[in-house]
Amino acid sequence: MKLKKGYFITFEGIDGCGKTTQIELLDNWLKSLGKETLLTLEPGGSNLGKDLRQILLHYEKPVADTAEMFLYLADRAQHVNNVIMPALCEGKIVLCDRYTDSTAAYQGYARGCDINQINMLNDIATGNLQSDLTIVFDIDVQTAQLRLGKTKDRLEKESVDFHTKVKNGYLELSRLYPQRIKTVNANRTIKEIFSDVKKLVGELLNI
Ligand code: TMP
Question: What pLDDT is attached to residue 1?
Fold first, then answer.
């Protein structure tokens, strides 16, 4: 059995919540402290995943909810096996933009797929690999919508009602797993939000 030596930190939130800016700031900060990191994302963090991302975000014909769920899970299975686990075994700090909680929030709470089944399928796809820390960037849906560009992808085009369900899904997940999932108020400046991120990650890594 492979032994995980590094740390696994995931970033979550609705589209337009600002998590990608924050994960890049965190990566730079950790590197400046001499830490070895791997910055990656879902969907699209592996070679197979790059093709799946293209389908997931830009496929123009209707996609069944369960087909969408299995495509995200396929991306995750490949990503964990080929990218995340090897980096963790080398002792790296893996920073991942979206992971299992995205499937629970989007396909579960928003699309209505069964949460217990999603949990079970996530466990299969990841070989039970959970994050050590997940930061949810909680933001007003309207503010997040304004941040999205004009050319929206398949998921970004969903209604305000859909994104509100995703947001509430994340809040429910953070209530269910308070040890692992920490929520940060993302309705503030980049600097203020990053100071909370540094505090949470600093506590995990003892820095
Ligand atoms: P990104 O734009 O943050 O890279 O995320 C891609 C989109 O995919 C985003 O709208 C959220 C969605 N998504 C899911 O619906 N389920 C998942 O499991 C993941 C990882 C992402």
Answer: 58
DSSP 110: I
Dist. CA 146 → ligand 1 center (Å) = 18
What is the torsional sign of CA 76, 78, 79, 84?
Answer: positive
Closest by alpha carbon to 95, among 81, 80, 107, 84? 84
Q: For residue range 111-154, what is the model confidence (pLDDT) as tens digits?
A: 999 999 999 999 999 999 999 999 999 999 999 999 998 889 99
**Ligand 1 mean position, distance from CA 6 (Å):** 25
Answer whether 97's CB lies under 8 Å from 41's CB: yes
- Write down the pTM of the prediction: 0.97
Per-residue CA distances from 172 to 64, 134, 181, 188, 202 (Å): 25, 14, 10, 22, 25
List the structure tokens of 113.
């797929």
At residue 56, the 3 state secondary structure works out as helix
Long-range Cβ contacts of 164-168 (<8 Å, 24+ apart): 165/109, 165/110, 166/14, 166/105, 166/106, 166/109, 166/110, 167/14, 167/138, 167/139, 167/141, 168/109
Count CB-CB contacts under 10 A for residue 196. 18
Give pLDDT tens digits for 178-202. Answer: 999 999 999 999 999 999 999 999 9
Instruction: Check pocket membership of 122 for ligand 1, CB cut-off 6 A.
Output: no
